[in-house]
Write a structure and sequence with these properties.
The protein contains 8 helices and 4 strands. By secondary structure, it is an alpha+beta fold. A two-stranded antiparallel ribbon has the order 1-2. A two-stranded parallel ribbon has the order 3-4. The protein starts with a helix and ends in an 8-residue tail after the last helix. The N terminus is likely disordered.
Length: 171
């Protein structure tokens, strides 16, 4: 049993990554990342809006920023339950316009957190679209959203398209 906990403690390159912003950024440099612009994003302590074009490194920047803040303790707090104490990530919401973007960010985040040796509980880090978060918030307040299921919407759009003579084209 002790071996399991030892393995958990040694996941990824935990010791090499370190627990300071400088050691985190230094580790990224050693991994081949260009930290000139990335370092600016990572060192910023305030809320950030990252708006750039495709392939510019948004997913990487956002993922590394969250991971660094967790690794350095800037976005964690201690929770004690039944005499046991653990570090837990603060509530962090990462928003995108497309659900595919949210899924990509979450997948990258989960993959990289083990590489960086992060064992902090990260259930409070949520990836979603603006629409999904607003729907969740409205539902939590007891306000019904009455959004129709995807299959129903698709069926309705198909019927309307047929009525206008816009369907699939026969070859």
């Amino acid at each position: 049993m002790d071996k399991i906990f030892e393995d958990l403690g040694n996941m990824g390159s935990k010791d090499e990554v370190g627990n300071t912003p400088d050691s985190f950024i230094s580790y990224l440099e050693k991994q081949g990342y260009n930290t000139t612009e990335l370092g600016i994003v990572l060192r910023e302590d305030k809320t950030q809006q990252i708006a750039t074009g495709a392939g510019s490194g948004k997913t990487t920047s956002i993922t590394f920023k969250i991971l660094m803040d967790i690794k350095t303790g800037n976005s964690t707090h201690t929770v004690t339950h039944k005499g046991m104490t653990t570090e837990v990530a603060d509530k962090i919401w990462v928003s995108t316009f497309l659900s595919s973007g949210a899924k990509d960010l979450e997948r990258t985040f989960n993959k990289k957190k083990y590489e960086f040796g992060i064992t902090t509980l990260t259930d409070n880090v949520v990836f979603s679209t603006l629409h999904a978060e607003f729907k969740r918030a409205l539902n939590e307040m007891g306000i019904p959203t009455n959004i129709i299921p995807h299959k129903t919407a698709l069926s309705l759009m198909t019927d309307v398209a047929k009525d206008f003579g816009l369907g699939s084209r026969a070859s």
